[in-house]
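Give me the fold.
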Amino acid sequence: FQAEDGIRDSSVTGVQTCALPISKLAKVGLIAFAMIATSGSVNAQMNIEITGVGQSLFPVAVMRFVGENQLPLKVTDVVRSNLTRSGAIRNVEVGSAELGWDINPDYKSWSNRGADALAVGNVTKLSDGRFEIRYRLFDIRKNESLGGLVVTVTADDLRLAGHKIADDIIQKILGERGIFSTRLSYVIRSGKSHRLVISDSDGENARPALSSNEPIISPTWSPDGKKVAYVSFESRKPVIYVHELSTGRRTVLSNQKGNNSAPSWSMDGSQLAMALSKDGNTQIYKINANGTGLQRLTRGYSIDTEPQWSPDGKWIYFTSDRGGSPQIYRMPIGGEATGAAERVTFKHGFVTSPRLSPDGKNLAYIARVAGAYRLHLQDLASGEVVALSDGTRDETPTFAANGRYILYATRSGGKPVLMAVSIDGKNKQMLSLPGADIREPAWGPFMD
């Protein structure tokens, strides 16, 4: 497809897209976030509760795409649902009317209907059975087209097409990359059953990557989003595996004597850090992604665990009780032999679970406060710390790929849930799974 103002071709997990050059609407202060909606593939209905959404939401009209009725799933339903959960967009009611992507809209009429932006599109079934979806966004305020996308997908990837279109709308309106096309992993425990689940960011297309009668903990995504490393107790001891999601192929990364725990990928995916107790007390090690080159990084009498690579590749952050109680430290990636570890957290007496934001500016962690375990965020430049939760049993935080939200496991009303909170603490979304214990969340990276 050729457009009058040029295109960019790319191919992502079987989806072909063409992006037209864009201009940006004014930012509105909130960053898009998509949470889980339904998880039919794992035979359970997810419940969502959204709080803290502001009143100044950006009004967008998403019209039904021309030809969309031939689809087994309406792409605009996915787009509208994503935008609703963004915390920044309000869908303008447009009913079931259709508008094609090549129209010249009546800007004044749409302004009178309360829309600041208008999304339109067409769906064409190709000879090979795939669907070509053309979408365009208009700035109603400025009376101009902002460009759009051409996405070619199979019927199985229609939801992904909707996510990509919603991401593009977020990019154009907020000036920030959308995260609807990213994926989540989490562990569901029901009775003796443990399932590692991979889902879209809205919870659809949920599939169990691994089912076991023994615990599964600490899932973590490779930087390219193609693999997940985790700890499984299926051998009646903690062993670290690397799981290739497209094929289901698993390889043992570490099965040393004692505990093998807390895997963490380097930014280029070539190595993982982990915590091993093979030589006595638990210490930090790193290993090549193919299982070779094991190297010990910390050497002491304390417990050192939960390693996390810094985004710039210069540091490894970790939890240690070397000062008497757990705190967060960091050391050079070559280990303590190349530079002393330095303490990072000072505001609380008990701190665990370090997680670095993708831009390396913020550190999320769990601190014990008056007997409660709560999520906190520390600005690494200033040292300023803010509490993002008033819970009592928060654990395992994980950043969204754009760094604007943190997903974590907690309890609400005595029941296990996942909670997502914006880094300013204003927007929260809670996910619960009736009759099951949901925990160990990990948010996947951007998929280019």
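The chain is about 10% helix and 45% strand.
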